[in-house]
Design a protein that fits this description.
Number of domains: 2
CATH topology of the largest domain: Creatine Amidinohydrolase, Chain A, domain 1
Order of helices and strands: EHEHEEHEHEHEHHH
Largest sheet: 7 strands, mixed
Structural class: alpha/beta
Helix content: 40-55%
CATH architecture of the largest domain: 3-Layer(aba) Sandwich
Strand content: 5-15%
Number of helices: 8
Oligomer: single chain
Shape: globular
CATH superfamily of the largest domain: Creatinase/prolidase N-terminal domain
Radius of gyration: 21 Å
Length: about 210
C-alpha cells in the first residue's frame, strides 16, 4: 500500500471523451451566465452548488451520492464538478466543464478539493436549503471563514425560466409519456398482471 503521506487528496481523470448532454453547450453557457450575473450583482466570487438539481442544471452532471458529498464550484471563469472516486471519469465525461475527483484516504478531502478550487474568497454562495449544519461547519473551516451567502433562491429562480431547448425537451418527454400511457390503457384487461401492463407502457416508450 502507498504511504498515506503521499497519497493524493484529489486529482483529475479525463478518461474517455465528453458525452452528449441533454442540452447544448450554448444552453449551459446561458445558464452559467445568468448565475454569474447574480454573483456579480451580489459580490459573490465563488458559488458551491451541492444539490442534485442545481449541479445537473448548471453542469449537466446528475450525481448519485451513495452517502458521499458532491459539489460544483462556479467562479467567474470556471465550472468544476467535485466528485467521489467511485465515479472515476464519468463526471467529467457527463458535464460541460471540468471535474476534480477527491479520494477517501482521509476524511474531508471533498472540502480540500473545494477549497483548492475556491481560493480564499471573502464570500461563498451556498444552497442553504440543501447544505446540512455539519457541512456548513466544514465549509467555514476549510474556506477560510468566508461569509456563507444563500444563493438557493436565485438559483431556483433561474431554473424557473425555461429556454426553447428546455421547452422542446419537455414537449418531447410529454409526447413519449402519452404513447406509454396509451399502451398501458390498451393492455389493461381482466387477468393481466401489473408487470405485464407496466411492460407494455415501457416497451412502447422505448421504441419511441
Amino acid at each position: 500500500m502507498t504511504d498515506l503521506s503521499i497519497r493524493p487528496e484529489f486529482f483529475t481523470c479525463h478518461n474517455g471523451e465528453k458525452m452528449r448532454l441533454p442540452f447544448s453547450e450554448g444552453e449551459y453557457a446561458r445558464r452559467l451566465s445568468t448565475l454569474r450575473s447574480v454573483m456579480a450583482a451580489r459580490d459573490i466570487p465563488v458559488v458551491l452548488l451541492t444539490s442534485m438539481q442545481n449541479i445537473a442544471y448548471y453542469s449537466g452532471f446528475l450525481y448519485c451520492s451513495f452517502g458521499r458529498p458532491y459539489g460544483c464550484v462556479v467562479t467567474a471563469d470556471a465550472c468544476t464538478t467535485v466528485s467521489a472516486n467511485i465515479d472515476a471519469g464519468q463526471p467529467w465525461r457527463r458535464s460541460v466543464g471540468e471535474n476534480v475527483i477527491y479520494t477517501d484516504w482521509q476524511r474531508h478531502n471533498f472540502w480540500r478539493a473545494v477549497a483548492s478550487l475556491s481560493g480564499q474568497p471573502g464570500r461563498v454562495g451556498i444552497e442553504a436549503d440543501h447544505m446540512t449544519l455539519a457541512a456548513r461547519d466544514f465549509a467555514a473551516d476549510f474556506l477560510g471563514n468566508a461569509e456563507l451567502v444563500d444563493i438557493a433562491p436565485d438559483a431556483m429562480a433561474g431554473r424557473m425560466v425555461k429556454s426553447q431547448e428546455e421547452i422542446g425537451l419537455i414537449k418531447g418527454g410529454a409526447r413519449t409519456a402519452d404513447i406509454g400511457g396509451a399502451a398501458i390503457r390498451e393492455a389493461i384487461r381482466v387477468g393481466a398482471t401489473e408487470i405485464e401492463i407496466a411492460m407494455a407502457g415501457r416497451d412502447a416508450m422505448e421504441i419511441e
